[in-house]
Amino acid sequence: MINVGTLQINRRYTRILIDTGAQRSFVSESFTKGFNEPLVPMTQTLLVSTPLGDDIERDSHYPSCEVEVEGQTLTCDFAPLGMIEFNAILRMDWGEKHHAKVDCYTKVFKLESGEGLILHFEGDMGKATSCIISVVRARKMMKK
């Protein structure tokens, strides 16, 4: 399941994609220009396959970015990646870390904060371009 919406990352509003099939959380390289925290080396190089079939290596990340949902701060580990349509892609393990429950009918993500509060994120999936959805579907089909 994928969902599109707007959240704050490191106190800046940004367009995000939540993709439960993504293998990693990514942040746009252009969006990171406003980050105060430095890139940290990864213990292992990450090989990323793009929807166009290119392979890109990444060897650094932002391990503790702040993602705000309903006024509560959750953390996320992002690898920088050249993206245009979105400033961030959140993967399923981020949801797992925050005990996410996905309502496929209403397209609402329910997350649990560190204090046990239930947070809701309702994206605007209907406004996503069919092109982006096609690219995500194509990527998933190529993995099969």
From TrEMBL:
Entry-linked CDD domains: retropepsin_like
**Alphabetical list of InterPro entries matching this protein:** Aspartic_peptidase_AS, Peptidase_aspartic_dom_sf
Which terms under GO biological process does the entry name?
proteolysis
GO molecular function per UniProt: aspartic-type endopeptidase activity
**Protein name as it appears in the record:** Uncharacterized protein
